[in-house]
Write a structure and sequence with these properties.
The chain is of the alpha+beta class and 424 residues long. Strand 1 and strand 2 form a beta hairpin. The chain folds into 2 domains: 278 residues, 3-Layer(aba) Sandwich (Aminopeptidase); 122 residues, Alpha-Beta Plaits. Helices cover 38% and strands 24% of the residues. The strands form 4 sheets. It has an 8-stranded mixed sheet with strand order 1-2-6-3-7-16-8-15. The protein has a 4-stranded antiparallel sheet with strand order 4-5-18-17, with helices on one face. It has a 4-stranded antiparallel sheet with strand order 11-13-9-14, covered by helices on one side. The protein is elongated, with a radius of gyration of 25 Å. The chain starts with a helix and ends in a 5-residue tail after the last helix.
Length: 424
């Protein structure tokens, strides 16, 4: 008889050199992998590969732009129902929440993937297939992540696996761009559903394990003035000139924060304003993104930006020879907390043990994902890979290659079962 794939992988693990994993978590994952029902679920995840590819195409071709995830969310809710869940809700933020009750429900574990993509509603999201490569905007980030949730749910149902904890299958909104983690923030609001730990599914190589959060502060900064004719109103304070002064001062000051220590970045991503080449603009705006894994450094570079903006405003107003002074609006359009994770936490080590079980080396990372928010408020959270090979995320030619994609499903399943106390 041909041995089960899960048995082959387990045998491979037994020959691997010991790594820096907690022994208890490694033993727990090994015990789960040997359980007959779990072996059946692992095999089913391989067998349903073609079915999941059909789901991937269908969901990718339902546009899910920022703040427009509704139609995809509704279809995902239908799929959760078809897979066996009966307690499914869509909350005020558009999060789709399907509850799979546990034996006692004292704890609740959330398995999440964000529904949204970065692409506007008018984007052509038709999927093109070339062998094992699937190309379309958003197909990897994060439609494949949503499909991973469906696969795990179906495997649990097929193998009739129960857990002590309740498991929430959540397609959340607002991870990308100006969504500012609104879906996850809503889940963890006062009065939100009980969630004791969260496992998010998103990008990266199969062995990637995100245990901490890169924070970000984002601003839209707009200088405003009276405007006028470039000749007739010469001497009027110019919003573009003020914007240029602010960028220059900020860039000169930023290295005092970015030059050493934990990586900290900044980017002026978009600028705009003005009427014509021969008009003094009446407004000039820019959008700025700053990031760091250290909240103190993020706050420090933020302070430099604020100072540069105010200095530029004063300097441009002081240089004018006529007209009203400029004003400036500083609007914060995004705030993700930097979250110091703990590599030795039980959830992190369980995931690392599952990655090692799959024959891979855990790649510990900090990143900007939905896990940022729960980690920042003390809730155990990680982000695991959606598997396969993702290329050109956030680009129109984004693609996802179906290569060893079952491994990410196996890793997520075993991590979930360990955290949800299947063996208790």
């Amino acid at each position: 008889m041909k041995p089960r794939l899960s048995t082959i992988l387990l045998a491979g693990l037994l020959t691997m050199p010991a790594g820096p994993l907690a022994a208890d978590e490694g033993s727990e994952i090994a015990a789960l992998a040997e359980h007959p029902q779990v072996r059946a679920a692992l095999d089913h995840l391989v067998e349903m590969g073609d079915e999941l590819l059909v789901d991937l195409v269908e969901l990718t071709e339902i546009p899910a732009p920022p703040f427009g995830e509704g139609p995809r969310g509704e279809r995902f809710a239908e799929m959760l129902s078809q897979a066996g869940l009966t307690d499914i809700t869509i909350d005020e933020a558009g999060n789709v929440i399907g509850r799979r009750p546990g034996r006692d429900g004292r704890r609740v574990i959330a398995l999440t993937a964000h529904l949204d993509t970065v692409f506007p509603i008018e984007t052509d999201v038709t999927v093109h297939i070339d062998g094992d490569t699937y190309t379309a905007p958003g197909i990897g980030d994060n439609t494949r992540g949503v499909v991973v949730l469906l696969g795990i749910l179906r495997a649990l149902e097929q193998a009739e696996i129960d857990t002590a904890a309740d498991v929430l299958f959540i397609g959340n909104t607002g991870e990308e761009g100006l969504g500012d983690l609104r879906g996850v923030k809503h889940l963890f609001r006062d009065g939100g559903p009980q969630i004791d730990a969260m496992i998010a599914i998103d990008g990266g190589s199969t062995g990637r394990l995100v245990y901490g959060g890169v924070g970000s502060h984002r601003y839209r900064i707009t200088f405003k003035g009276p405007g006028g004719h470039s000749w007739g109103a010469f001497g009027t304070a110019n919003p573009h000139h003020a914007l240029g002064r602010a960028i220059e001062e900020f860039m000169e000051a930023a290295p005092e924060v970015t030059a050493d220590g934990e990586k900290t970045s900044f980017n002026v991503g978009r600028i705009g304003g003005g009427t014509s080449i021969n008009s003094v603009p009446f407004e000039s705006w820019m959008e700025v993104d700053m990031r760091s894994g250290d909240q103190d450094k993020l706050d420090a570079i933020d302070s430099l930006l604020q100072a540069a903006v105010q200095d530029a405003l004063r300097e441009e107003n002081a240089s004018r020879t006529r007209g009203e002074p400029l004003t400036v609006d500083v609007e914060q359009v995004g705030k993700r907390p930097a979250a110091k994770g703990n590599r030795e936490a039980d959830l992190v080590q369980r995931a690392a043990a599952a990655i090692a079980w799959a024959g891979l080396e855990p790649d510990y990372r900090i990143s900007s994902t939905d896990a940022n928010h729960p980690i920042s408020i003390g809730v155990p959270a990680i982000t695991l890979s959606r598997g396969g090979i993702s290329r050109d995320a956030h680009a129109p030619a984004e693609s996802w290659e179906n290569k060893d994609s079952h491994l990410a499903l196996h890793i997520a399943l075993l991590t979930l079962l360990a955290e949800a106390d299947m063996l208790r």
